[in-house]
């Protein structure tokens, strides 16, 4: 299995498959493929065992169903285009080396990689972290590809070294990194600073990947250009009124 990434602002991931090689992704991720690559939709992909395993994966931000791609009769390829301006990365997982990833960050993976719910080791992080801390846990053995928003800044945290980050900018980190929630100091900062009440505190040892673009910030930047009401054609050709907010939401679902 070989891969390459083309493009810059809106990159595309190509994965080449040898005969009988398989690849797994969440449903709806496929952009294009060679004709000899078959698709199979299943609830048991990415390490999930039974329906409860699929539900657990879904709670982390994934779907109940996964799509498995297999090359038949010869080599083939699958392509996944980025949904937002961002950066595609390739990462290797192995026993003792797993990752926590933001809920929209997983693209696809080789067999043997498990995608599940990232349990909050800190109660405060789970309660006050907001949508930025709905995490996916990537473990097992193999390779997976991630999509983080905008540019990616990675940093190796030494043991005991910490960095405070807006929750939405936390893209991914190694499981050895601990995280908690810290409150912004000062009542003026909380009420008028525009940065919320809480920051994520990541503490090493381990590597972190921070994303420069968050989906709420992108939606906020696009909202003035969509107007208060847009008209789109429905499946039957009828016009359906859709608010600007719902258009933005659909773009990222």
Please characterize this protein's 3D structure.
It is built from 5 helices and 21 strands. The longest helix has 12 residues, at 215-226. Helix 4 (215-226) crosses helix 5 (244-252). With 253 residues, it is α+β, with helices and mostly antiparallel strands. The strands form 5 sheets. The protein has a 6-stranded antiparallel sheet, with no helix packed on it. Strand 20 (229-233) and strand 21 (239-243) form a beta hairpin. It has 2 domains: 2-213, Double-stranded beta-helix; 218-252, no CATH class.
How are the SSEs placed, and which strands pair?
Blueprint: E1 2-6, E2 12-17, E3 22-26, E4 32-33, E5 37-42, H1 50-59, E6 66-71, E7 76-81, E8 86-93, E9 99-102, E10 106-109, E11 113-117, H2 123-128, E12 135-140, E13 142-149, E14 152-157, E15 162-165, E16 170-174, E17 178-183, H3 187-192, E18 198-203, E19 206-211, H4 215-226, E20 229-233, E21 239-243, H5 244-252
Antiparallel strand pairs: 1-2, 2-7, 3-6, 3-10, 4-7, 5-6, 8-13, 9-12, 9-16, 10-13, 11-12, 14-19, 15-18, 16-19, 17-18, 20-21
């Amino acid at each position: 299995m070989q891969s390459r990434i083309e493009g810059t602002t809106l990159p595309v991931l190509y994965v080449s498959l040898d005969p009988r090689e398989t690849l797994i992704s969440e449903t709806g991720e496929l952009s294009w493929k060679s004709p000899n690559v078959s698709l199979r939709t299943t609830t048991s992909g990415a390490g999930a065992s039974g329906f409860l395993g699929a539900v657990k994966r879904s709670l982390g931000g994934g779907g109940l169903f996964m799509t498995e791609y297999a090359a038949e009769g010869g080599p083939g390829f699958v392509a996944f285009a980025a949904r937002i301006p961002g950066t595609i990365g390739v990462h290797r997982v192995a026993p003792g080396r797993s990752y926590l990833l933001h809920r929209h960050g997983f693209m696809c993976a080789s067999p043997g990689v498990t995608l599940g719910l990232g349990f909050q080791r800190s109660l405060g992080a789970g309660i006050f972290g907001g949508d930025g801390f709905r995490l996916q846990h990537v473990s097992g053995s193999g390779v997976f590809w991630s999509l983080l928003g905008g540019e990616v800044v990675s940093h190796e945290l030494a043991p005991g070294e910490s960095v405070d980050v807006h929750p939405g900018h936390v893209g991914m980190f190694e499981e050895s990194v601990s995280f908690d929630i810290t409150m912004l100091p000062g009542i003026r900062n909380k009420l008028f600073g525009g940065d919320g009440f809480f920051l994520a505190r990541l503490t090493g040892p381990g590597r972190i990947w921070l994303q420069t673009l968050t989906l709420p910030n992108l939606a906020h930047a696009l909202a003035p250009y969509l107007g208060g009401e847009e008209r789109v054609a429905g499946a039957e050709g009828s016009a359906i009124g859709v608010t600007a907010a719902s258009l933005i939401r659909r773009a990222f679902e």
